[in-house]
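User: I'm writing a tutorial on reading structure tokens. Could you give me a worked example: one chain, its sequence, then its tokens, then a sentence or two explaining what the tokens reveal?
Assistant: Sure. Here is the example chain.
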Amino acid sequence: MGDDEVPASVGQVQIGGAAIDLATGQAHTCALLEGGSVRCWGDNQRGELGLAMHDRIGDDEHPSEAPLVQLSGPAVDIAAGYQHTCALLENGGLQCWGSNEFGQLGLGHTDTIGDDEHPASAGLVRVR
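And here are its predicted structure tokens:
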């Protein structure tokens, strides 16, 4: 895209639902879908897709084929950093996953979340 294609010729990204918000990191994207589900695709070296695995999503399949991120409840907002993502939940809780090398997930440790466990298993970020 951008060298000789007309933008209208690019197809829609199939994400498996209607997106109400998007968050983009260094090489991953997450969509907040109607109903509070979150689906992520792109690079996944540090668990930034929150799928308890390291597979990339979207390089040889549509994002809609990826599982939804397992959260502790419906999300109402989403934000992404370099290799991490956070979702604000409907109940006011905050759940974060991905790279945590510098404690950016706010969980009181530096373990990466989402590479071999689902974000819901890590608990909520404590915010005062």
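What the tokens reveal: The chain has a mean pLDDT of 93. The radius of gyration is 15 Å.
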